[in-house]
Amino acid sequence: xxxxxxxxxxxxxxxxxxxxxxxxxxxxxxxxxxxxxxxxxxxxxxxxxxxxxxxxxxxxxxxxxxxxxxxxxxxxxxxxxxxxxxxxxxxxxxxxxxxxxxxxxxxxxxxxxxxxxxxxxxxxxxxxxxxxxxxx
Length: 136
Known about the structure:
The protein is an alpha+beta fold. Helix content is 16%, strand content 44%. An 8-stranded antiparallel beta barrel has the order 1-2-3-4-5-6-7-8. The protein is globular, with a radius of gyration of 20 Å.
């Protein structure tokens, strides 16, 4: 009887730890629609640019990797073509860092807002990235 009780306690503790672990997944993990924006006044020396926003997608995984697809096009300030990257991500205080393998600093985005369905980020002083969760 004691062995059964001990096994039951071990099983319950293991089950609780598994549930707790899955409930602590970071709010960024998942698929997000993305939009990068800036202002024409941020780049006064640039000519021939018609669009100061670009759409894309970010997919964050729980292992610290993010897949980024940025849908550039001709006349876009960010890129004239689609770009795809797979980077590491890390949050420290109020900063989301997107880093390549050999770059420990990466691109530091300031976190303005972070909820389960929306994220607002700022890169430097003039580039804004808004994320909207694809599905909850």
